[in-house]
Design a protein that fits this description.
alpha+beta; 3-stranded mixed sheet; 57% helix
Length: 431
């Protein structure tokens, strides 16, 4: 945790601690529902600063076997807990207190005490907010405050900014509620102030929860960082192309980088040196990139129709083979041929030299002869291994003899699929 972040949390903690004590004193004297809601709000904020400190301390623990990537995300987790505390202890309590005072209105005692405490609280919260804004300015980089809160990877500063802003608005609501209640002699305005504070805290809690959840489940680096990482990777003759690049924040200052690269290397030793060079350039350009994983690969154009691996869907390959096998087991020649291309090829290793059939007519004749001679046969695929448009099927073929006994043989099919149909089927029989 940076010193600036720590200063902002300390300022907020001390301010909320003093404000909470003053508000409880004011509530004890005045009985104001708005003042009680604000007191509980300040208690929640004080506890929240403690949770942010806890997250910062625990995130610095060294990696373990169970958590090999370290504990950086703990800062996001405890900031998310802060949002839950703000909603449950702050918002819901204020809403419940406001509803109760609406149903059972009570006149305020000594409103001047409430005004004095509210004035002190406004000053302290303003000082805390000023500290948070000052520490956030270097991170803001010219963005609007809302854009900064939405896009920063820092877990603590947005919490403090939203809490302090919400506290100041809440104090203003309490001040208006008490004032109107005194002017109109209607204590229900004070209760309305409590409801307003509860609604405000609820909105802030929801915004915080959404932002922290996004960071907790993993966010990529900013477009600026992504551009710097790509530039660092490409800034050398050993990198031919960036095939894929994935990044994720494990913490505000801890980024994981996973890159698949095409590298111009002819030896394993040269490949290792190239990867080390790329990693060193990335770390020098973007110091927050702590974990870098580089996978060498060969780029294949997904729009290439030459049969490259990227041009085919393995799932579609398996589906085409399964459709063929199901028709085969039904001994349905029409369905089998519908599962094969017009220029299909079927080749077996029947002794002595095997047979090769090409085209729908020749292959159909082969299946008609085969099914006619083995009417009780059944095909069981024991293992199916698919890669792109190719599939290897290890199978067991069983049939019943004339005497009622069962025979079986095992073999392997090598199949090529094109346009969702079997284009080539080469069968190899064991024994």
């Amino acid at each position: 945790m940076h010193d600036g972040t720590r200063r902002a949390i300390v300022a907020a903690f001390l301010a909320n601690l003093g404000i909470a004590a003053a508000k409880f004193l004011a509530f004890a004297v005045t009985g104001s529902a708005s003042m009680l809601a604000e007191a509980v709000h300040s208690v929640a904020d004080t506890g929240n600063q403690g949770l942010l400190f806890l997250g910062g301390r625990r995130s610095r623990r060294a990696p373990t076997k169970v958590h090999p990537f370290g504990f950086g995300p703990e800062r996001y987790f405890w900031a998310f807990v802060v949002a839950l505390v703000l909603f449950s202890l702050g918002s819901l309590f204020a809403l419940a207190e406001g509803v109760d005072k609406l149903r059972n209105p009570e006149h305020l005692d000594s409103p001047l005490v409430a005004y004095a405490v509210l004035g002190v609280a406004i000053v302290l919260e303003a000082l805390s907010l000023r500290t948070a804004r000052r520490e956030a300015l270097p991170m803001r980089e010219g963005r609007s405050w809302w854009s900064f809160i939405r896009n920063t990877k820092n877990a603590e500063i947005p919490v403090v900014l939203l809490e302090d802003t919400g506290a100041l608005v809440g104090l203003a609501i309490a001040l208006v509620g008490i004032t109107i209640s005194e002017v109109t002699d209607d204590p229900r305005w004070d209760a309305a102030g409590s409801l307003g504070i509860g609604a405000l805290l609820g909105v802030i809690a929801v915004v915080l929860a959404i932002e922290m959840k996004s960071l907790l489940i993993g966010e990529a680096v900013t477009p600026e960082y992504d551009e710097q990482i790509r530039a660092a990777i490409s800034d050398g003759p050993e990198v031919t192309r960036i095939i894929h690049l994935r990044t994720m924040h494990l913490g505000p200052d801890d980024v994981l980088v996973a890159a698949k690269l095409e590298l111009a290397c002819d030896t394993i030793r040269g490949l290792a040196r190239a990867i080390d060079t790329v990693e060193a350039r990335v770390r020098a350009s973007v110091p927050v990139a702590k974990l870098i994983f580089v996978e060498p690969d060969i780029y294949r154009n997904p729009e290439d129709d030459t049969g490259g691996l990227m041009a085919h869907d393995t799932t579609a390959t398996v589906a085409a083979v399964e459709t063929f096998n199901e028709a085969f087991n039904r001994h349905d020649v029409d369905a089998v041929m519908a599962a094969m291309t017009d220029d299909c090829v079927f080749e077996s290793t029947s002794p002595p030299m095997g047979e090769r059939r090409v085209g729908q007519s020749a292959v159909r004749a082969a299946w008609e002869d085969f099914f006619g001679s083995t009417p009780t046969a059944h095909f069981d695929a024991e293992d199916v291994i698919a890669t792109a448009d190719r599939c290897v099927v290890q199978w067991r073929f069983t049939w019943k003899n004339d005497d009622g006994t069962e025979s079986a043989v095992r073999g392997v099919d090598v199949i090529r699929v094109r346009d969702g149909k079997v284009a080539e089927k080469f069968a190899y029989v064991k024994g």
